[in-house]
Amino acid sequence: MNQYDLIVVGSGPAGRRAAIQAAKLDKKVLVIEQGRRVGGVSVHTGTIPSKTLRETALNLSGWRERGFYGKAYRVKQEISADDLRRRLLITLDHEVEVLEHQFARNRVQHMRGKASFVSPDTLEIQKDDNDVVQVSAKSILLAVGTRPFRPDYMPFDGRSVIDSDELLEMQNLPRSLVVIGAGVIGIEYATIFSALDTAVTVIDPKATMLDFIDKEIVEDFTYQLRDRNMKLMLGQKAEKVEHMPDGKVQVTVDSGRRIITDMVLFAAGRMGATDTLNLAAAGLEADSRGRLRVNPETFETSVPGIFAAGDVVGFPSLASTSMEQGRIAARVAVGAIAKEPQKYFPYGIYSVPEISTVGLTEEEMKERGIPYECGIARFRETSRGHIMGLDSGMLKLIFSMKTRRLLGVHIIGETATELVHIGQAVLNLKGTVEYFVENTFNYPTLAEAYKIAGLDAWNRMGEAPKDESKAAPAPAEKAATPAAKTKADDKKAAAK
Ligand SMILES: Cc1cc2nc3c(=O)[nH]c(=O)nc-3n(C[C@H](O)[C@H](O)[C@H](O)COP(=O)(O)OP(=O)(O)OC[C@H]3O[C@@H](n4cnc5c(N)ncnc54)[C@H](O)[C@@H]3O)c2cc1C
Ligand SMILES: NC(=O)c1ccc[n+]([C@@H]2O[C@H](COP(=O)([O-])OP(=O)(O)OC[C@H]3O[C@@H](n4cnc5c(N)ncnc54)[C@H](O)[C@@H]3O)[C@@H](O)[C@H]2O)c1
């Protein structure tokens, strides 16, 4: 039987970062992946495909230019499913190639097959030809990710009632779409299709959406979606979904209302992919959503030597955080020094328009009793915004009145997911409102919005007291320091 220092199950963001980190520390590493190609959900059905689809949709529809040329402007009049798929295949091929090359040059071994436990340090790998091999390791990392939640009552057919993994296989662009589930996946796809002129209805039993985002940003977002005729049926339940003889689908909502649509996308959450791992043989148990509990600093499970990272451990379930979790888990697994993950990380929601945020929301500031001031800049106030023809988009900064520190950054609009990193750096380096007032920003850029929002807040906050650098944080504000952020994180997780 082959013996390794570290075996990683799953080649998504968590698995690949972990494998390469351990290999860089001269460890013998094996990655087991059941999929036809390495990359995980992130490369094949999640992050990369959805973002490629978004980019293609925005380019072909001429969406970004409509501020100038009017709402009727289109780069391509008839956009087909094939148009969308073409760019997808090229991007995915490239991603896989880069990853395979990384594994090869770092001497990470990789085996195709489905892994399950035989004992806490030994796995059985079932290959496609039904051949079975056993491998063992000093440490094992489970980076198996998730799969879509597919309840029995939903009549999935892979064509007109689909989950988010199946969406990429669609043959025709729907003229109408009902999205069930207003989570991040549902909202991203709903707005992408709306940009392609599909008539979109979003249904969710919860009365609000994206609760972890600052309310003012969600209000702006909701206004923009309604302004372009998207139907948001929040606080309503899709009770019945039926295939009609003409190939359409009928969705009956609990109010009795019926919607006839070309396609239904069911996006009501995901389940940890742990059911085939034979966890019992390792002494492990998953929760009701298939997720594993780990020590949040080391990512070790309750069984010494078995680690778990990425979506399978639950919140925040992002490719970005999964990579960092995988790296930390691998370092701990092979006995290297590892720091716990940074508590303030950004969220990027690639809806149309995009949203990005880091730190505390205005609602969290109130809950914690931290006196604060906000600064707001609209993209249309920036020269870059004029050049780009933007009529929407805003940046909101939240500062503590006591210490003047930046505690929250919330952005909606073009390039929000890139712009957020400026705020993230200032926030994590404990910068104050003076950073934005006293520094010069490139002109004309959208980043200038930071300057405008900083000045907006500063005008209301007044001059800094002379010895502000020595100002002690108020007790309530101490709770906003990274060490105590976990509570807010838990709340965000609960809100999801
Ligand atoms: C539609 C969509 C859009 C998203 N967009 C974003 C985004 O914009 N930004 C962002 O940060 N995140 C995004 N995410 C989330 C992101 O994709 C996940 O956080 C990330 O993929 C999780 O990585 P992971 O390493 O946990 O595992 P995954 O990427 O889920 O990969 C797990 C791998 O393990 C394999 N596996 C499972 N069980 C076994 C087994 N028994 N044996 C062998 N192999 C096994 C699977 O085949 C899979 O390849 C999106 C997700 C979806 C679904
Ligand atoms: N840009 C990004 O970072 C990005 C993009 C996509 C996905 N993701 C990650 O993927 C994960 C999964 O996303 P998701 O959107 O599938 O899940 P989610 O848990 O975020 O949202 C699910 C939504 O479905 C609703 N819902 C739950 N059960 C339902 C039911 N039976 N019928 C109808 N609606 C129901 C919920 O009220 C919720 O609004 C998220 O945790 C997210 O972090 C991230």
From TrEMBL:
Pfam families: Pyr_redox_2 (PF07992), Pyr_redox_dim (PF02852)
Keywords: Cytoplasm, FAD, Flavoprotein, NAD, NADP, Nucleotide-binding, Oxidoreductase
Annotated Low complexity bias: 471-485
All copies of domain FAD/NAD(P)-binding, residue ranges: 4-326
InterPro entries: Class-I_Pyr_Nuc-Dis_Oxidored (IPR050151), FAD/NAD-bd_sf (IPR036188), FAD/NAD-binding_dom (IPR023753), FAD/NAD-linked_Rdtase_dimer_sf (IPR016156), Pyr_nuc-diS_OxRdtase (IPR001100), Pyr_nucl-diS_OxRdtase_dimer (IPR004099)
UniProt keyword Endoplasmic reticulum, yes or no: no
Cofactor note: Binds 1 FAD per subunit.
Ribonucleoprotein in keyword set: no
EC number: 1.6.1.1
Family membership: Belongs to the class-I pyridine nucleotide-disulfide oxidoreductase family.
Task performed by this protein: Conversion of NADPH, generated by peripheral catabolic pathways, to NADH, which can enter the respiratory chain for energy generation.
Name recorded for this polypeptide: Soluble pyridine nucleotide transhydrogenase
Organism name: Neorhizobium alkalisoli
